[in-house]
Amino acid sequence: CVKYLIVITNDKELWIVSIMPRVSFAPPSLCLAFLSLLNHYLPSLPPTVRDIDVPSLHRQQFIPSGYRPVGLSWRCCVLSLFQIHNETLNVWSHLLAAVCQGISVDFSSLPLVLYVFSAVTYLSCSAAAHLLQSHSEQAHYSLFFLNYMGVGIYQYGCALALCLYSSYHSSCQFLQIFLPAAAVLAWFSCATCCFAKFYLCRLYPLHRQLFQVVPLAVTYLLVISPVVHRLIMYSWTTSSAPFLHLLQVVLFLLSAFFFSCPIPEYFFPGRYDIFGHSHQLFHILLSFCMLTQQEALFQDFLWQRQGLVREFGEKHLLMACVSFACLLLCCMMTADIKHGSEEE
């Protein structure tokens, strides 16, 4: 309650002063106990450091700050998902894109299910690599080998779905040539990326980039060729899928540009360490590219699903899907071999 004090001054004036009770803003003991428990299981994360404070393996060109200290525990690496550092946008862009992927169920949609699985695998591996790589040098190599395995799997998942759903000139004979070639190139991309990461990362950064970009580019040209043939040779008025395919090609080319060129951080070192550097732009554009590609494939699937089994037959569809498992196994073995070499 509010109390009042009557005061009479020397001039015989009467003042009535209200006295407010003391209010305490201290949290109750139960809250303090909860906060103490929370601090025990969720330790405060160390602040980010500059590039000179981390080994050269963890540095990015023209990004002088925003690095997490090397040697964090696995728990701190996971909790850094909610910390602001120069990998935050790389992790979240692919995590959110992975959540947005959908799943289909019937037999004619089996290649589409494998495509979605490949996309989620790649996005999850990429997010895990960028989130946890600062734990140690060994973890850095292992996680990025896992990331490159996801790249190879996703490339073949795209090849499988695009040639079956988005191509107007596919046949059993075409599949027998196209899919093995795509599988070999997808595995080769995985192998060369692992090789470049392990052997060329420190001493030959330009050679490393060439070893990664060239195989990835050749594989992409093959994978996207059925779509390009369709965009050139056939009408765009049947559905909105051709426009989505064109958009996904544009987004991929833009993402490839930022993957290859350190822009804008080359011109403004230090300004884009946390938000806006080239690798983050690559991640964001690639995420939008994958979501656009998924929507285009869903539309093509609805258009083609009735005649898919009739045109190719269950046997050829099943063999195409089994080849996906073979490619997955090859990429896993390649990443594991490189991981074994790194441990030695």
From TrEMBL:
Spans traversing the lipid bilayer: 112-132, 144-168, 174-198, 210-232, 244-268, 280-297, 317-335
Main location: membrane
An annotated GO cellular component: plasma membrane
Binding locations of Zn(2+): H130, H279, H283
Pfam families documented for this protein: HlyIII
GO molecular function: metal ion binding; nuclear steroid receptor activity; steroid binding
Alphabetical keyword list: Membrane, Metal-binding, Transmembrane, Transmembrane helix, Zinc
Topology relative to the membrane: Multi-pass membrane protein
Cellular localization per UniProt: Membrane
InterPro entries: AdipoR/HlyIII-related (IPR004254)
Similarity-based family: Belongs to the ADIPOR family.
UniProt cross-references to PANTHER family, sorted A to Z: ADIPOR/PROGESTIN RECEPTOR-RELATED, MEMBRANE PROGESTIN RECEPTOR BETA
Name by which UniProt lists this protein: Uncharacterized protein
Gene from which this protein is expressed: CLN3
